[in-house]
Write a structure and sequence with these properties.
Alpha-Beta Plaits; four-stranded antiparallel sheet
């Protein structure tokens, strides 16, 4: 598969109280947004925090785009990405992911 690819990841986070949940969400957002401009081939990154607070919702969504599937593969083992994963430790208790090609003409 060549061409741009979209990488979306959603997490449920470990937290006992609403304050801990807020702090965990902000930590994930800050760390992932810190990758902007640091990884070749990462063309877009956005982190959203859930505001619905329904019991079945994920806490955080990472919306990112890569120049190619090779760039996404390289991201997985990039030292900056690995640093973020290490800093987050076991804060993430559930993870869901979707990767799909983007049509360059329509952006979808």
């Amino acid at each position: 598969m060549s061409g741009p690819i979209r990488h979306i990841v959603m997490w449920r986070l470990r937290a006992e109280t609403p304050a801990e949940r807020t702090a965990a969400r902000l930590k994930v957002k800050t760390l992932f947004e810190g990758l902007r401009g640091r990884i070749d081939g990462l063309t877009r990154i956005e982190v959203g925090l859930d505001v619905s607070n329904v019991d079945y919702a994920c806490d955080v969504v990472l919306f990112s785009e890569f120049a190619s599937s090779a760039a996404l593969t390289a991201y997985a083992s990039h030292p900056e990405h690995l640093r973020v994963r290490e800093e987050l430790g076991d804060i993430r208790i559930g993870r869901f992911q979707v990767d799909y090609p983007i049509n360059p003409e329509t952006g979808t």
